[in-house]
UniProtKB/TrEMBL annotation:
Protein's UniProt name: Alanine racemase
Xref: InterPro entries: Ala_racemase_N, D-amino_acid_metab_enzyme, PLP-binding_barrel
Residue ranges occupied by any Alanine racemase N-terminal domain in the UniProt entry: 21-210
GO BP terms: D-serine catabolic process
GO MF terms held by the record: D-serine ammonia-lyase activity
């Protein structure tokens, strides 16, 4: 049982489709994630939420010190809403966007752009100088680990070893319009790879856990070396960022890291059911209308094709939570209809709803203008998503 009994009338009576957040689970997940961060500062990953009103419920916590954005446009949008200390996780060299960030910085916004190459630094310096600004930047440093025959990580940054970092730091004196203020070392292979996934066999999960254990000493040693190189170069950082929902425990123990990031664990999407070390409470989902019963044990929903990004696979499909049936292999989740097989008791059309969880977190919000905030058995409020506020960044 998930929420189908506590909010049965809400799900029956509210026009579908709609997306929702269980606020009790949201609050509990936030408390659990904060506890896993110890006393370190926290930077919230905004792309995992994509709903300003929900983000505001976190902003007052004393450890929440900033926001990790996924594009410069998103950072500018959030700055306009009053959010501050905005780190853009992915580089951009698009002149209009960079110039807009420079102007916002000149007007008092705290926005930091990302770089990992000399080409990034030189282009950003040229644009910042033309705008008459001093632009804060951070370096994205790769912490993937190459094992024999296995590259465990993601192809993210060109800064992979000490020589790369030293060479890039040597470019900074030629970039007077830039201010290096931080580094990011996101260990995607720890934070974002499930190691107890029901859809994988035991050998796969065991291999992932082994690779994670073998990766951690490499990551810690590399972060320590990064710190030493920066200190030797006279660089004083405002932050050293690391972590994700799936790696908070190991990153907390890393002395080099001054702030931790999480986001997806707040919604606890379906992919996050597959971690050994923690089990957040499912907090977000969507309801579809059951409109057909083409067979005695097959029901069909209107809509539902909300797939997750990344490599394709069944784990990127929405997860049917109620009724406890299963999607049909040949149809999956379709744009206009999503059939599922269920042989139990369902009083259709009186019971006219099916509940799903998206495989990922914030991507759910790209399909809905608002989130219904469920609390104490009723709809306690409605919160606009980025989409509902007319925003689409990528």
């Amino acid at each position: 049982m998930w929420l189908e009994q506590q909010y049965a009338e809400v799900f029956r009576q509210t026009p579908k489709p709609f997306a929702f957040v269980d606020m009790a689970a949201w609050r509990q997940n936030f408390a659990d994630l904060v506890a896993r961060c110890g006393h370190k500062r926290i930077r919230i990953a905004t792309k995992s939420i994509r709903c300003p009103d929900l983000m505001r419920t976190l902003a007052g916590h004393p450890q929440v010190d900033g926001w990790l954005c996924f594009s410069a446009d998103e950072a500018l949008y959030l700055a306009g809403l009053g959010f501050n200390n905005l780190l853009v996780a992915y580089p951009t060299l698009e002149p209009t966007r960079v110039t807009a960030v420079c102007r916002a910085v000149q007007q008092g916004a705290q926005i930091v752009l990302m770089a990992d190459s000399a080409a990034h630094l030189r282009a950003l310096n040229r644009l910042a100088a033309a705008a008459g600004a001093v632009l804060p930047v951070a370096l994205d440093i790769d912490v993937s680990v190459a094992f024999p025959g296995i590259y465990f990580g993601v192809y993210r940054s060109s800064l992979r070893q000490a020589a790369d970092l030293r060479a890039l730091l040597a470019v900074l004196p030629d970039c007077p319009a830039l201010k290096l203020c931080g580094v990011m070392t996101y260990e995607a292979q720890i934070a974002g790879v499930t190691d107890a996934h029901n859809g994988k066999n035991g050998a796969y999960n065991a291999l992932v856990r082994l690779l994670k254990r073998r990766s951690l000493p490499h990551i810690r040693a590399w972060r320590q070396e990064i710190t030493q190189i920066l200190q030797a170069s006279g660089v004083e950082l405002a932050f050293f960022n690391g972590g994700g929902t799936g790696s908070l425990a190991s990153t907390l123990a890393d002395a080099a890291v001054t702030e931790l990031t999480f986001g997806s664990g707040l919604f606890a999407p379906a992919l996050f059911d597959g971690y050994q070390d923690f089990q957040p409470r499912p907090a977000a989902g969507f309801a579809l209308e059951i409109v057909r019963r083409p067979r005695a044990d097959v029901y069909t929903c209107l809509g539902g094709g909300y797939m997750a990004s990344g490599s394709s696979g069944r784990d990127k499909l929405p997860l049917l939570m109620y009724p406890r049936g299963r999607l049909l292999a040949n149809e999956g989740a379709g744009e206009v209809q999503t059939p599922f097989r269920f042989s139990g008791s369902l009083d259709w059309p009186q019971d006219n709803f099916a509940l799903f969880r998206h495989a990922k977190a914030g991507e759910l919000c790209e399909r809905f203008n608002e989130l219904l905030l469920l609390d104490n058995g009723t709809i306690a409020g409605r919160a606009k998503t980025y989409r509902g506020d007319g925003q689409c960044f990528l």
